[in-house]
């Protein structure tokens, strides 16, 4: 009899290998195995889907992160606020190299020197704040104007609405306007060449910025002058910046000229200007100049005076304490004049003719005339001896443009009776005054004494 392969129990049906109890167990195990197998298959399918989803999520996360990073980088790089902040930082630090990287020339080449000049123009915080406000407006509106027309903002599209920003610079102009000749301009020690115009010398295509300007030239009096070194901000591309050169010159007036025919000099060089009513006007005189006056009177007296132009704000000057030298005839010349005059006077006495009087003014001749024709001298005949002035006492004066010289004089002569011919020597002491009237002429005389002649007191002379 057949038995169960699993438990050994007799089998009712010989065609079966397992008893009903074991077969039920085996069937249950088989179902469990089938279910486990199906579960494994389902889990494998679920795991593959989950992995795919995870991979997709990771890819999306990476892409999203990349996009975020890219957006952040792009925003940081092309953010207008960041651009303006970079410009401000470079200017504040005076970093010409950093600023140069932010510049773009519109009609000129960006250079290290230009960037440095632009940095110098914005060392002041208020200036930088004004520029910041202008750039913020120009980022929004490219046509916006500001306090610095030579500067602007340019936007260059880069990626999905992002733009690259540059600080644009336009060339500026400088007009040098000064009355002096041979003008020369240097910017930061570098000579520049300009174009002569009706308004002055125009310098074009300059890089905007702050420059130290120095000007040299020649005044109307031929003086070489150099202007004060001046810091000049060139930041407008609309109109040229006008600069006078800061030259230490001014138009001045000088009063106190003793005669309108006087020669006027500036630092020793004669100028063409003459005084009018004692006042001379001089153009373009350099501060520190010495203004001189020299007048040579017809009788040879030389009057000089000088004044220094020391303060540009004080342009009304005056010659003070003029000094007069010379103009006094020499002793020999006076003796010759006296001898000729007195000899003519004695000749007039001898001939009772006033027309023979010479060497004197008409007024003095008229004063002598009455004595010449009187009967007092008819009986005598006069012969001239000598006329000598005391060289120790010769006084020169000038008033109202008239020169006078007075001196003590000793006169010797002889007179003889016309009938007896008896000769008598005589000596007279007088004070003579000469006046210049196209030459020295006797204009007055007065009796004096030998004591006065010998004492030679200048103060006692008229």
Q: How does this structure look, described?
A:
Keywords: Membrane, Transmembrane, Transmembrane helix. The protein is of the alpha+beta class and 462 residues long. The chain folds into 5 domains: 56 residues; 90 residues, no CATH class; 72 residues, Immunoglobulin-like, CATH 2.60.40.1120; 77 residues; 125 residues, Nuclear Transport Factor 2, Chain: A (Roll). β23 and β24 form a beta hairpin. About 2% of the residues have low confidence.
Q: Classify the fold: give the CATH topology of the largest domain.
A: Nuclear Transport Factor 2, Chain: A
Overall, the morphology is rod-shaped
Helix content: 25-40%
Rounded to the nearest angstrom, the radius of gyration is 59 Å
- The overall number of domains is 5
User: At CATH's second level, what is the architecture of the largest domain?
Assistant: Roll
Uncertain segments are: 67-77
Mean pLDDT: 88
| Class by alpha and beta content | alpha+beta
How many beta-strand segments? Answer: 24
Helix-strand blueprint:
Layout: H1 20-78, H2 80-93, H3 96-100, E1 103-105, H4 112-120, H5 125-140, E2 151-159, E3 162-169, E4 172-176, E5 181-187, E6 190-192, E7 195-197, E8 200-206, E9 209-218, E10 224-226, E11 230-234, E12 241-243, E13 249-255, E14 263-266, E15 269-270, E16 279-286, E17 290-296, E18 302-308, E19 316-318, E20 323-325, H6 331-351, H7 362-372, E21 380-399, E22 402-417, E23 423-436, E24 440-447, H8 450-455
Parallel strand pairs: 1-3, 4-12, 13-19
Antiparallel strand pairs: 2-3, 4-8, 5-6, 5-9, 7-8, 9-10, 9-11, 13-16, 14-15, 14-17, 17-18, 18-20, 21-22, 22-23, 23-24
């Amino acid at each position: 009899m057949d038995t169960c392969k699993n438990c050994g129990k007799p089998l009712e049906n010989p065609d079966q290998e397992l008893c009903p109890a074991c077969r039920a167990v085996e069937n249950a195990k088989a179902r469990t195995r089938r279910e486990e197998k199906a579960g494994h298959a389902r889990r494998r399918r679920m795991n593959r889907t989950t992995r795919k989803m995870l991979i997709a999520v990771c890819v999306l996360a990476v892409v999203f992160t990349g996009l975020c990073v890219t957006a952040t980088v792009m925003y940081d790089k092309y953010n207008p606020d960041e651009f303006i902040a970079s410009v401000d930082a470079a200017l504040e630090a005076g970093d010409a190299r950093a600023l140069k990287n932010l510049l773009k020339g519109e009609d000129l080449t960006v250079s290290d020197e230009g960037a440095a000049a632009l940095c110098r123009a914005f060392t002041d915080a208020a200036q930088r704040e004004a520029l910041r406000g202008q750039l913020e407006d120009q980022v929004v509106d490219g046509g916006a104007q500001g306090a610095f027309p030579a500067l602007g903002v340019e936007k260059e599209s880069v990626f999905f609405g992002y733009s690259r920003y540059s600080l644009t610079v336009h060339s500026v102009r400088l007009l040098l306007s000064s009355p002096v000749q041979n003008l020369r301009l240097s910017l930061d020690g570098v000579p520049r060449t300009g174009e002569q115009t009706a308004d002055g010398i125009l310098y074009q295509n300059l890089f905007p910025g702050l420059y130290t300007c120095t000007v040299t030239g020649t005044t109307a009096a031929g003086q070489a002058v150099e202007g004060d070194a001046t810091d000049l901000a060139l930041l407008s591309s609309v109109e040229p910046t006008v600069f006078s050169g800061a030259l230490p010159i001014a138009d001045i007036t000088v009063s106190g000229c003793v005669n309108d025919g006087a020669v006027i000099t500036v630092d020793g060089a004669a100028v063409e200007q003459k005084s009018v009513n004692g006042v001379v006007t001089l153009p373009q005189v350099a501060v520190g100049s010495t203004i001189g006056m020299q007048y040579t009177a017809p009788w040879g007296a030389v009057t000089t005076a000088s004044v220094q132009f020391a303060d540009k704000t004080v342009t009304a000057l005056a010659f003070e304490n003029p000094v007069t030298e010379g103009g006094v005839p020499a002793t020999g010349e006076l003796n010759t004049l006296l001898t000729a005059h007195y000899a003519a006077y004695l000749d007039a006495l001898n001939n009772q003719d006033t027309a023979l009087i010479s060497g004197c003014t008409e007024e003095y001749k008229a004063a002598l005339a009455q004595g010449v024709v009187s009967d007092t001298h008819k009986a005598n005949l006069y012969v001239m001896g000598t006329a000598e002035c005391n060289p120790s006492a010769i006084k020169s004066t000038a008033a109202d443009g008239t020169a006078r010289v007075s001196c003590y004089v000793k006169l010797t002569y002889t007179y003889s009776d016309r009938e007896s011919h008896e000769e008598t020597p005589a000596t007279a002491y007088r004070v003579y005054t000469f006046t210049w009237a196209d030459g020295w002429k006797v204009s007055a005389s007065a009796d004096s004494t030998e004591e006065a002649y010998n004492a030679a007191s200048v103060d006692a002379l008229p």
